[in-house]
């Protein structure tokens, strides 16, 4: 039985970790932290947990926490993570970090998009945790940089094409749409019910969203050479879900059937990637609450472009579910343990 | 390992049964039926299931089905259920019926609210399956009449008061609110997104909703004498959830604290009923996707009335989750097996 | 052409006033205020207004404002209103106050529910502005206390019964449901999209909501004697709309048809109250964006209780629309001027 | 006073026409039709209209209708429109057709995407009614082909770029998102609340949506040569609104500021197009219920692509509002008459 801490348990990825870990047969959550709610039971912050997880929220004291757990999930804002992760590592703990702090290999790029990195020496040790692409390295890692929600859907959507050099890497356009939980639980007017409900809008237009360097880093690895993409995120009036519609120009023509076959072969045996049959496309509704990434692919008859559509639950495969998948690998457990639950519909 | 059939698998309670049963460690779903989609994989009707439950939907042939399963869930409209349940019983199967067909003990009352009953002799054998009130009888039953969603929330909300004769039974008013999945998956203009979204309305006003006789039957048993209630259902623009706000006049005054204590004692040890502390009240958001029934109780300072608020997920504790709870009892399994998952939030 | 100020223009009732007044043929909005956004164009706070109302938001200086307008709408929180209303009145302006500050005739009651009143001498001059019940007095007033959203729906729903002494005044239970805009535009976690969406819950349970004294004051006037009610508000995941389901015990029995006739006679000729035919009940969806109050009434066959259902748009008939209706009366304009627009559906 | 018929008044564009026309000072709606509801008052189909528009729905008899009106709006499905429009024209009526039947100049293309055209000789007489691009011709027309919702947002979004030959016409990708009212009021499982709510999905992926030929026809005219686009529509869980995110490659580089200036000049004086300042982008929430088209434009710093975002209310500028705008022009009325209302927010 692994003893686990959820550091930063008062946000949406935190409570989702607790939901998943509660049902995990090899995990006992023994520590939850929240600076602003310290002392209260976590179930007073999230009444869904009442009667099942009533642990008191603790202050974030890395040494004390390390003494009582085996694995640490850091579900903190960026910067807050890199302030504590080194201590957890020094104490010999396995860490799955859900922030952006260890996702970029290059500290300068981190500096451009976020701020000066506090422990750049860890960047080369951290493993960007997409199990479908990097399973073996994850098994050996002690620090997982858990991917962002947009990057997960985009990278899984494009990997078969880039890996097989089927598309012009300069042609990639990712039009992405996210549910509101991706914006976190901070009290901001912009995220009030009446501001978001019954509206649809883009944000970060023009290539400025912080998930871009992370996406480009991973796509460049797949591509074998640097590339740049157009990426535009949008906000959908719903709680959960990310759907990315991805456009690219093929280097040589392929039919929809051939592309579907390629994707099915690429993801053959993957427990959480479902490649849809030709003519079917994903909906976030069909992955909600699950660790699935559903992918559909076709060719635009009029222009020859390849269109890939990928959908995940941003809080599961895009955050907490993938984090547990990474933990399973890192800790030598079966990869799907505690994660093989079905989407909730409706 | 129990082999289980879900008869009527193309509705919302059907797919919710499949979601729950998939994660149940002692169940294998081996048969799913749907007249209108026979031949197709159930995952083509509900893409959430894709890759995990791809069983073909079968026609509803009770004898053939009985030969390959141990337990049958009938998630059919009323009337359709009583056409097949007798056969399943004759074949020696345990049946959990989610329709209204076996909920009323009195065939005449069934006739008034529905239509002439086809096998009234079964009504005395059927057990109205609220485990919190009737656990031992359920264990011995072979036919469970799984309660309706409104009745579950109302009966659990009122049981401690009526059982302890604390309220005037003539004073009960139940103002109930349901998410849209309660209306089923039929193609009706009234249930279109644009008709329901951004609106709130009552329906069945004036004491005409078909769940009333069922509620009154069970409350009358608790009360030890017949009673009649005012019951008004409303439609909430959300997928899941029922919340009942229940008003009654106490026979002698009690404080909120005393009432909370009474409820906590009454439901002490119950795995799925959570009585909230004084001053806290339920939200459907905090039970969504789970088998919990959350209950809060207080006294209206200005009028002395007792106000009880109970909330469930109509598809789980109000239908498929309770059905599995009943199956567990009926089949000698631990009552919470496969049901101890947390609500999904947000 | 009336020159009008909207004081407190950065909240939802403020922007709704601007939407309505923009289309009003006898009004020019010449001043808008907001302390926290002073200096910015109001259209930067509400982009809906862009290109049509780009007035700069001003600081709240009552004397300066008075010099340039004829009528002042104060759409401020309670307390903030009573700090400035006396000055506007001294400057000879007509004031429609949308806060709670002048709604209660009794300063002590105001003190119990809010805080010590700063200018209690104005309470007897203020007119509680429900035009359907107090049209003539409103015409003569210079200070209108614009009713709250819950009170409007409740009072209009009960007036015919109480005025005609048809019900037991001790029997009244009001189960009310509101869209989220009623909670205002403050940045609070409780009102975030993901906290509210897909959930339904009560709040202020037990007779503690601040609209209660206002409702009881007006119902007591109609009743000719003091009364107390049970009032429970709930939050509906939608932007706009209030629906009140009102239960009471008749003093002598009446049929649904007789009650509908009574209501139709009572509201005969009223431009904004629509009494529905027997068997029809309101939905907030059918009044959204309009100044209508829709009312349905029936008798619960099983218990004899009368059930009234009334629905309004909380931002229109429950706030800004009614405020303009009051302004029209106070300023000698046709009562429906600028208000005779249809609900928006879907 | 123009006498107007709304033919096909039981759909969402029909009721939206009635909402707008009710407030139009020079219009009296004297006839409404619906085959399936003939005989009932239109307000029984849409209770929003109750007490204001209670006209009985008539059968669709073009000659009889022509005798009592001056202008006809046909809000019918395709094919149903071309069965009756010729008669209205023969009777000398002005017609605004909201269907697709007269939007394509080429009967063969219509045949490929819809079916064989019944009166192709009318195609050259019909004017594709985008006032911003074709105001003078609309004034002289007697048959307006009112544009589709997706085409309106796309064409207005791209006109300044194509007209000024600033982009590679082969590079255009339109990623479009629509609220659910665009799917109409037919009783289909796919459009049920629980199927649509809390999900986001594409449809018609691969260049197969019927609005494509219409968009390409108009863009080709602007371009001065034929072009083909990639167009992918998506369904957003909200009632109203279309937002198009449009990607293209510039022929020579331009800054965001230059592009904004270009757009502002192009649409200078247009009453219903609002070009947003640099760095601002539209939301459907800020045009809801209004005839505005909001447009933002910028350059993707990483790839040099131009990104245009345009938003409309699909039922107003995308259908019924634009239809009234066209009627105003055709009938010699001020273009904005009855249309200068503000968006409703929240």
UniProtKB/TrEMBL annotation, chains A, B, C, D:
The record's section on CDD domains has: AGPR_1_C, AGPR_1_N
The catalytic site is made up of 149
Pathway info: Amino-acid biosynthesis; L-arginine biosynthesis; N(2)-acetyl-L-ornithine from L-glutamate: step 3/4
Q: Where in the cell is it found?
A: Cytoplasm
Domain (Semialdehyde dehydrogenase NAD-binding) ranges: 3-141
**Any GO MF annotation of the entry:** NADP+ binding
In terms of Pfam families, this protein maps to:
Semialdhyde_dh (PF01118), Semialdhyde_dhC_1 (PF22698)
Principal localisation: cytoplasm
Keywords associated with the record? Amino-acid biosynthesis, Arginine biosynthesis, Cytoplasm, NADP, Oxidoreductase
Q: Which reaction does it catalyse?
A: N-acetyl-L-glutamate 5-semialdehyde + phosphate + NADP(+) = N-acetyl-L-glutamyl 5-phosphate + NADPH + H(+)
Q: Which SMART domains match?
A: Semialdhyde_dh
One GO BP annotation of this record:
L-arginine biosynthetic process
Family annotation (Gene3D superfamilies): Dihydrodipicolinate Reductase, domain 2, NAD(P)-binding Rossmann-like Domain
Q: What is its EC number?
A: 1.2.1.38
**Which region is the signal sequence?**
none
A single GO CC term for this protein reads: cytoplasm
Q: Which PANTHER family match?
A: N-ACETYL-GAMMA-GLUTAMYL-PHOSPHATE REDUCTASE, CHLOROPLASTIC-RELATED (PTHR32338:SF10), N-ACETYL-GAMMA-GLUTAMYL-PHOSPHATE REDUCTASE, CHLOROPLASTIC-RELATED-RELATED (PTHR32338)
What the record says about family reads: Belongs to the NAGSA dehydrogenase family. Type 1 subfamily.
Provide the function of this protein: Catalyzes the NADPH-dependent reduction of N-acetyl-5-glutamyl phosphate to yield N-acetyl-L-glutamate 5-semialdehyde.
Q: What is the protein name for this chain?
A: N-acetyl-gamma-glutamyl-phosphate reductase
Q: Which organism is it from?
A: Geomonas limicola
- Which lineage? Bacteria, Pseudomonadati, Thermodesulfobacteriota, Desulfuromonadia, Geobacterales
